[in-house]
Amino acid sequence: MAVSEFNDTFLRACRLEPTDYTPVWFMRQAGRYMPEYRALRDKYDVLTLTRTPELAAEISLQPVRALGVDAAILFADIMLVPIAMGVDVKIVDSVGPVLDEPVDSRATIERLHQFARTDIEYLRRTIQILRGELKIPLIGFSGAPFTLASYLIEGAPSRTWLKTKRFMYEQPKLWHELMDKLTGAIIFYLHEQVDAGAQALQLFDSWVGALSPADFREFVLPYNRRIFTALEDTGVPRIAFGTDTAGILADFADIDCEVIGLDWRQDLAQVRRLFPDKAIQGNLDPAVLASGWKATEHQTAQILKSLRNRRGFIFNLGHGVWKDADPETLRRLVDYVHAH
Ligand code: CP3
For the residues of 276-291, what is the DSSP string, one character each? Predict the structure, then answer.
């Protein structure tokens, strides 16, 4: 294929079409493990970077140049939606999103407002710049309602999600109002991204695995379903990603999406048998990358072997790249996946 041509291997895999090789990209491929990113972070905080189109586009392009991946992901953050809805969010180094005023009442939910195109003009501009530069597909994304609600209610990253669960169980009506509002905002946000040029969409439900299957069905699934169904008219592949979803997968993936994103706790070949009509994305444990090339090569070979000769596979990690990952290992991994 001529270098100047658009490489749609990733999109073809999303649609279960035959491909010449297995496409690969990495969640959090743009970020702190890259020296080029850290150089920009020395000068600007992360929210400023996401809201400055020239810088955000440059950061999305860094791993494309350095690693040779098959898709780019918009440099943004899941907290941009709550921020556009009027929430005051800080991203604290090595902690994550922190709120001075967590959501804890009807009044705090009522304060969340739907937003307009003008509120996310910077994002549209970033996407337009990227589409002018890229020869591979651009993935847009949003946080899923549960994951966003959990940050809003906890006020800071949590490992138990106790405040979130108490809110859900003790004030179910308010919970549904919050989820409804977030869902509407996410649908608008993702439509805007496709309108500006995004060619695939991923919904990050990073913390949904904290729920029991019954709670997931009652408190979350209707909203995820609404989002994916509402995005059908965009025509772009829709990726449903969550971590720790093994226990809820039958419901989590029973949704109007083209691709299921999985972490390392699940066997890809088994999931493929359960959902033969969907493409699969995953699922190398990012801890393996920190364990040397031999382990990385061995585990990657196993993953590739388990789905050999199957259409609809996109190689990725099971969750985001760690900040101490070696870019050289990732580059080697891309070459390895392409060659096997
Ligand atoms: O390359 C990419 O994947 C695109 C960039 C991206 C960022 N955030 C930039 C960012 C993406 C896809 C996200 C999504 C995101 N943000 C998620 C879902 C993905 C997942 O990993 O499950 C979540 C849970 C967040 C919330 C968030 N924002 C966290 C937990 C952090 C890290 C805090 C820390 O310092 O450890 C952020 C900040 C953030 N967003 C960084 C980046 C590159 C690091 C901040 C920095 O540069 O200091």
Answer: TTSEEEEEE-HHHHTT
Residue of 151, 189, 244, 285 marked catalytic: 151
Could you tell me which of 162, 183, 276 has the C-alpha nearest to residue 231? 183
- Work out which ligand 1 atom sits closest to the CA atom of 30: 1
Look up 77 and say whether it is catalytic: yes
| DSSP per-residue codes, 129-166 | HHHHH-SS-EEEEEE-HHHHHHHHHHSS--SS-HHHHH
Q: 9-339 maps to which CATH number? A: 3.20.20.210
Rounded Cα distance between 186 and 223, Å, is 10
Pocket test for ligand 1, best of 78, 151, 316 (most atoms within 8 A of CB): 78
pLDDT digits (tens, 9 = 90+) for 180-224: 999 999 999 999 999 999 999 999 999 999 999 999 999 999 999
Ligand 1 atom at shortest distance from the alpha carbon of 32: 47
Instruction: Please confirm, yes or no, whether 51 is among the known catalytic residues.
Output: no
pLDDT tens-digit profile of 283-312?
999 999 999 999 999 999 999 999 987 899
Q: Which of the 8 DSSP states describes residue 202?
A: E
Ligand 1 in reach of 47 Cβ (< 6 A):
no
Cα–Cα distance for residue pair 40/42, rounded to 1 Å: 5
Which residue type is seen at 90? K
Q: Which residues contact 193 (CB under 8 A, 6 or more apart)?
A: 74, 123, 124, 127, 140, 141, 201
Report CA(97)–ligand 1 centroid distance (Å). 9
Cα-Cα-Cα-Cα dihedral sign, residues 7, 230, 61, 119 = positive
Q: What is the pTM of this model?
A: 0.97
Nearest protein Cα to ligand 1, atom 23 = 78
